[in-house]
Amino acid sequence: MLTKVRNLVLANLGVFLIMFATLGLDPRTPWGMYEPDKPDCLRK
Amino acid sequence: MVEIIEIYIIGIYRIRQTFSITVVNIVLFDSKNRMHFKGCHFRPELDLRNVLHGQDTQWEGSRMISTICRRIAESLGSQLKTDDDVIAVYAYSLEILLGSAVKLMLIITVASMFHILIPALLFLFTFCLFRWLGGGVHASTYLRCMMIVLLLTLGMAYAATLPVNTLQVLILYGLSLLIAIYVIIRWVPAGTNKRRINDAAKRLRQKKESLCALAVWSIVVFSCILDHHNCYATAVILGSLCSSFFIMPVGYQFIGALDSLLETMGKGGEDIAYKG
């Protein structure tokens, strides 16, 4: 049961991270002056 | 074939990409002073002797967040059995989220210690809003970015707490409004090496959005002045002024010069010494 819950949480986290990266949000961190390197697959 | 002229066997404690602690490393230096590492780590551009003397810790610090995010992403990817592209997306997302969270927490903590939390947050919000819409220069590493933003936010929040009368605030507002309008018309959206906007329609849209934000900003400034909160009004005005500065070419020159200076300091001034 716990494993199922953990997998569900991890899967949702994964989906959230992909959504966050591909929503079209600006890659610059909102608070400052540094931008991480955008992955090639997202650039394409 | 590399001619090895120096061999160091050193015992140092350093956090590696795998988060294990390295006890003993073998380091070889060739005739061109390039480092050859016997072990899990190979960085020919780094002179490890500087690390031993504490002069080249910039490298580790600047990539710390990236490394942590990469590790978390890989762990998540192995659990979910995803491919490398998806892991790269996880790492990218985490780097934005974690990097921002760490920076914000640090700013909130330090600003609270100096009792300037509200002006600091008002400054930061305005600064980030205009930079988000207008773009501008970026520091080359996370650590430098964090230090610049922290010092800038604290300095400006402290400046906002200095006693000023309403007339002075209005003059500052007028000045920053004129500068912001000029910057928006002339340079917004200001790009970087990693991101440029060349599409004319997109550029025009971002200019319009920035002007709308400027209108909202004006309302906020006047609300603060009417509420006799000159301190808050000054913080918001300074946020706009600073973001305008970092969108202008002079802001790019300033950050470029600062980056070069820190780069030289990170190398222990070797470049300058050799040129001299």
SS element count, helices of chain A:
2
DSSP strand content of chain A: under 5%
Report the sheet with the most strands of chain A, covering strand number, pairing sense and barrel closure.
none
Q: Count the strands of chain A?
A: 0
Range of strand content of chain B: 5-15%
Helix content of chain B: 55-70%
**How many runs of DSSP E, i.e. beta strands of chain B?**
3
What is the H/E string of chain A? HH
> Could you list the spans of chain A in which at least 5 consecutive residues all have pLDDT below 50?
none
The shape of chain A, in one word, is elongated
Oligomeric state of the chains present here: heterodimer
Main sheet: strand order of chain B: 1-2-3
Strand count, sense and closure of the main sheet of chain B? 3 strands, antiparallel
Instruction: Measure the end-to-end span of chain A.
Output: 39 Å
Q: Number of helical segments of chain B?
A: 11
Architecture blueprint of SSEs:
The complex is a heterodimer of chains A (44) and B (276).
Chain A: H1 2-22, H2 40-43
Chain B: E1 4-10, E2 25-30, E3 35-38, H1 48-52, H2 58-62, H3 64-80, H4 84-113, H5 117-134, H6 142-160, H7 166-186, H8 200-226, H9 230-247, H10 249-266, H11 270-275
Antiparallel strand pairs in B: 1-2, 2-3
Summarize this structure briefly:
With 44 residues, chain A is mainly alpha-helical.
How would you describe this structure to a colleague?
The complex is a heterodimer of chains A (44) and B (276). With 44 residues, chain A is an all-alpha fold. Chain A contains two helices and no strands. Chain A has helices at residues 2-22, 40-43. Chain A is elongated. Chain B has 276 residues and is mainly alpha-helical. Chain B folds into three domains: 1-57, no CATH class; 58-113, no CATH class; 116-267, no CATH class. Chain B has helices spanning 48-52, 58-62, 64-80, 84-113, 117-134, 142-160, 166-186, 200-226, 230-247, 249-266, 270-275; strands at 4-10, 25-30, 35-38. Chain B has a three-stranded antiparallel sheet, with no helix packed on it. In chain B, strand 2 (25-30) and strand 3 (35-38) form a beta hairpin. In chain B, helix 7 packs parallel to helix 9. The longest helix of chain B has 30 residues, at 84-113. Chain B is globular and about 60 Å long. The relative contact order of chain B is 0.11.
